[in-house]
Each structure stands twice: as structure tokens, then as C-alpha cells.
């Protein structure tokens, strides 16, 4: 199984697990919290069928990657992504992030530029800035109060309630997602680092407004209107006001976990965006 070393913690290397499939234009996919690269299953199938090279990786602390107790901030996450792109010598890449993974996309472009990047897609995004401040009244930070404490107290119980709202199970269970798929998500989350489970919560309040100003590649912003984890009014709609050149897509009634529940709609929008931008 392929791994790339991105740093060290004391005497141990920090390695990212990645998968590299297919041929064609390269798409690098960065997963959301608290999942791993396998969460792109439905998108990978569509992309491989459309003749793309698809690379997924597990963020530090998640999946089969190393689980250090350091480096849980977007400067480090973006540096990890840079090591991956540089090591594999990837160019003309489409960066596709979901949820927390949109932070890597934004911070990478803001800090490292677009020399290796042809386009960027932000699905269920964190941007522009979740913390509610005097100069950011649209922020949703009060809704995040206490989440870190819940994750520290009993992350397994917290995952139960988290996935209730991640997939809007009161509306979608049994129709757009099965109990088995929800259990699989919970099992993936349970395998994540105990440290990352709570440390990552702080990163959600990262200010990406400066990064947005430096995004200079064709971009897609896609969000579900029923997102309870990252409400659309505080995220995608504000993001689109700042990145006015981006293609903007709302999926009516879709929850945060729309990669699974609304895979057909997500895949159609993503494939259209990639085709329009790459041809």
C-alpha cells in the first residue's frame, strides 16, 4: 500500500496513505471529517468511468495515515498536500475538497499558489470564515460552541449525533442512505485518532478570507440547501459573494453528507465542471 512521508513526530515518521487509480486528467480528492479517502466512493466510480486519474488520501489522523498528536492546523494540512503533489510530481491537477477538505484546497492555493493546479472544487465548504465577529456577522460560530468538549468527553457517542445531522437521517434514512452505510461511516470515524477527533474541531474556525483572494483558477462551489453541519447561509452563499468567478451550484434539500445521499447530483455537477474547465 502506498504511503508518503510528510514529517516526523519524535522518532516516528508521519505518513499519508493514498490511492492512485485510472488514467487521464488528474483529480486529487481531500475528504471531510471524520471520514477518510474511501468516502469518495461514489465520486471515484463516476470519475474513473469518465477517464480521469483519481488520487485520494487520508488526512493525518484519519484512515490508514499516521495518527500523530501534532500538526492539526490548515498550514500543516496544506503543507501535507504540497508534499503529496510534489512527490508524485502532479501538474494540471483538479483539487476537489469536501467539507473539512475544502480547507486544504483554499489554504494550499493561498499559501503555495496554483502552479500545479488547474482548477478547484469546494463541496460542502467551510469558507469563508465560520467565526462570528464584528467584521464577519454572517459567521456561524455560536452553533459550534461545545463541540470540542463533546468530542473529548465521548467521541463515540458524539459521532452518533454528528451523523444524525451529517446525513439528516430523520429525512433520508431508508431512502437516500441505508443504516448499513451510516454504520460504515461511524466505523470509519471510530478508527480515526482520538486526538484528531477533537483537535480538528478548532480548525473549522480558520479564517480563509485571505486565501480566497488568492484563488486564481476556475472554481466550483457546491452545497446542499439543507446542510445542518455547515449551514449554507454562513458558508457557500457568503463564499460565492467573495469568489464571484466561481461556478455556483445549490442542491435543494441535500444534507452535509451529500456525497452519498445526493451522489447523482454531485457527480453531474462535478463532471460538468471538470469537462468545461479541462477541454
What report would you give on this structure?
With 279 residues, the chain is α/β, with parallel strands linked by helices. The chain has a single domain (3-278), classed as 3-Layer(aba) Sandwich (Rossmann fold), CATH 3.40.50.1820. The chain is 41% helix and 19% strand. The chain is built from eleven helices and eight strands. It has an eight-stranded mixed beta sheet, sandwiched between helices. β5, α3 (101-112) and β6 form a beta-alpha-beta unit. It starts with a strand and ends with a helix. The mean pLDDT is 96.
Give me the CATH architecture, please: 3-Layer(aba) Sandwich
Q: Indicate how many domains the architecture comprises.
A: 1
Low-confidence stretches: none
- What shape does the CA trace take? globular
How are the strands of the biggest sheet laid out side by side?
A: 1-2-4-3-5-6-7-8
CATH topology: Rossmann fold
Order of SSEs: EEEHEHEHEHHHHHEHEHH
Derived structural class:
alpha/beta
Our Rg estimate from Cα atoms comes to: 17 Å
The end-to-end span amounts to 33 Å
CATH class: Alpha Beta
Helix content: 40-55%
Number of DSSP E strands: 8
Give the count of helical stretches.
11
